Description:
Layout: E1 2-7, H1 10-17, H2 19-30, E2 33-34, H3 35-42, H4 46-58, E3 62-70, E4 73-80, E5 82-87, H5 108-131, H6 150-171
Parallel strand pairs: 1-5
Antiparallel strand pairs: 2-4, 3-4
Amino acid sequence: MLDVTVIEDPEAAAVSLDPIRARLxxxxxxxxxxxxxxxxxxxxxxxxxxxxxxxLERHGLVELDGERRKGNVTERVMRAxxxxxVISPLALAAVQPDPDRFRDQLSARWLLALGARLVRDxxxxxxxxxxxxxxxxxxxxxxxxxxxxxxxxxxxxQELTAGVSAxxxxxxxxxxxxxxDHRIVVAVHPTLKTPPTPELDQ
Length: 202
């Protein structure tokens, strides 16, 4: 099972967003289960659970873990293909955010567009690397800082911009024929006091 996978296909995204199917995905991410086992957990008839599992399987969100005999019936035991899923902006390709359309370093909506492009690009890179059975070279830094004042935050951003810009100028080899372009995204935003945890309906 993958730790996280990106959903790029619009139909797969629609399937995953159905509340019942999302609940089934969450149950299967916790461990393999049959339709009968899941029916008891989500409060639905086994036949209806089977219907939803087949839809998830068609789009590669769940897969067969094995089969087991229960009386005269052979049960299919399913598992999630990933512990968690992210829907790429490619699923809404016609209306996906374009950070190049409006550049404003102090705009939260521009930051959101950058984040969407990050999900899209890295998701596509992961898909390609997985198919080629290659490792994808990436790096991420995550941290928190408490600013005493808005002035301190502004000073921090000024120093951060100067420092990263200096590194880019130092290491950018635009004329290197064998080189490979890399994108750098640096973001600063307030932390959420309570991360959102939407409940899944049955």
